[in-house]
Amino acid sequence: MAIGFGMARRRQFKGICWDVLNNFVSRYNDLNGYWAVGQFAQIADTGTHNLKFQLRKGVTVPPYPEFSPTSSYYWRMVVRLMTANKMPEVWLSDAAIVFSMAGPTIASCSIEITTDLGKIYHHTKTIAVRPHDQMKEHQRLDRFGPSNQKGV
Predict the structure, then answer these.
(1) What is the Cα–Cα distance from 27 to 38, expressed in whole angstroms?
(2) What is the dihedral sign for C-alpha 129, 152, 110, 28?
(3) How many C-beta atoms surround the C-beta of residue 78 within 10 A?
(4) Which of 22, 40, 89, 151 is the most buried (most CB within 10 A)?
(5) Are 140 and 21 a contacting pair, CB within 8 Å?
(6) Are 59 and 70 spatial neighbours (Cβ–Cβ below 8 Å)?
(7) What does the pLDDT read at residue 28?
(8) How far apart are CA 9 and CA 30, in angstroms?
(9) pLDDT in tens, 6-45
């Protein structure tokens, strides 16, 4: 229970969905020195049009072990945001982020958080993205500066 303004409510998951998904599509979502979303688009561009991050399990479907740290990072982020909102962790049953290419340079990203009561909260965002190309992009070599997945 929250101290001060009132008790925590499960509907706060709406805000958590929004925060996590905006962080996920952010240009600061860095994985191995490159924009993570561009790397997801590269995979989706090769025939796997949907990439599902099962956050609780820390895996992707279809399996891409190099993206497992992303799933784990965003699970921890959901838990951190719940803690900041004074929400008990038992309220969280499952969470997933789905990345899919909707066109050559358009991607759809959505998050679903399932509560212990079975209610699903979700948020969807459409973004412009180009598939990752090492020949056109510079890799971030330092560990300084913004990176959403730093330390993963």
Answers:
(1) 10
(2) negative
(3) 21
(4) 40
(5) no
(6) no
(7) 85
(8) 32
(9) 688 999 999 999 999 999 999 888 888 788 898 898 887 6
